[in-house]
Design brief:
disordered N terminus; 271 residues; 7 helices; Nucleoside Triphosphate Pyrophosphohydrolase; 12 strands; transmembrane helix; 4-stranded antiparallel sheet; 2 domains; NUDIX_hydrolase-like_dom_sf; alpha+beta
């Protein structure tokens, strides 16, 4: 099983010479150790997981090659497949199919790009749309949660749980077989006594950081959505009080919420 991930992290600048050297080293390592690693990986996957294990191993390789292609062919694809002002190929953490899907959503594919998308849809319906964002494997060391992003007058709606000193963006965990929309709607109703307008629900991003109160290495993965609501906000369940926080309150929230604060601040919506 693969799940989508989008972790906010500011990029860093690399010196050109270092980039050239790392590229040459990576090519040598690929040519020298790649074939041996591939052969060993195939037999190891078959021995430990059978054909299902082999399929999962080869899928990881396919996704990695797709991500490599998104970087290697970015300039060509941006000319051939994307209209002016469209979403650009080239994000090293994204597959070609993901960037294709984003342009499909934005209606910025050229005729050539639309043709490629239709071919992919014949093989796998809605392939590009389902490929938006990049992929990692789930882990027992990751706590999977949902969060509701609601901003008013440059401040974000947050909560303080009973007996806690750290503020959290409202949300919670999914129950068995729940969709993100219904799980988040249920959690917000329980915590804040309001109903989310599911027709207005839209994806913001997925963020990961060290989980508060857990041993090092245990992460929380926060899938964030924004939505309008009906009703009157009122603290309920384990929530002690509702607060509106600005970016200057960043140090008073959890580590994963700090990443979300950074992202929203750079987007210009959190002041």
């Amino acid at each position: 099983m693969l799940i989508k991930k989008q972790v906010y992290q500011a990029d860093r600048q690399t010196k050109p010479l270092i980039g050239v050297l790392l590229f040459l080293i990576s090519i040598v390592l690929l040519l020298v150790t790649g074939p041996l690693g591939l052969i060993y990986g195939i037999f190891h996957s078959l021995f430990t997981g059978g054909f299902r294990g082999l399929g999962a191993y080869l899928l990881k390789i396919a996704i990695s090659i797709d991500q490599l292609g998104n970087v290697m062919m970015q300039h060509l694809l941006n000319v051939l497949w994307v209209k002016k002002g469209g979403y650009q190929f080239g994000n090293r953490d994204e597959t070609i199919s993901s960037a294709l899907g984003r342009n499909k959503q934005l209606k910025t594919l050229t005729g050539f790009g639309k043709a490629i998308d239709k071919i992919l849809d014949l093989l796998d319906p809605d392939h590009s749309l389902n490929s938006i964002d990049f992929y990692i494997e789930p882990s027992e060391q990751i706590i999977d949660k949902l969060a509701w992003i609601y901003i008013e007058n440059g401040k974000i709606l947050s909560t303080l749980s009973k007996g806690k000193s750290t503020y959290y963006i409202p949300g919670g965990k999914r129950e068995a077989n729940e969709s993100d929309a219904h799980a988040l709607s249920r959690e917000i109703k329980e915590e804040l006594s309001v109903a989310l307008e599911l027709s207005s629900l839209h994806f913001i991003g997925i963020f990961e950081a060290q989980a508060d109160g857990h041993k090092p290495g245990i992460l929380v993965r926060m899938t964030c959505y924004a939505a309008e609501y009906t009703g009157e906000l009122r603290a309920d369940s384990e929530i002690d009080k509702i607060v509106w926080l600005a970016y200057t309150d960043r140090e008073n929230v959890s580590q994963v919420d700090q990443l979300i604060f950074d992202f929203l601040y750079e987007q210009g919506v959190l002041l």
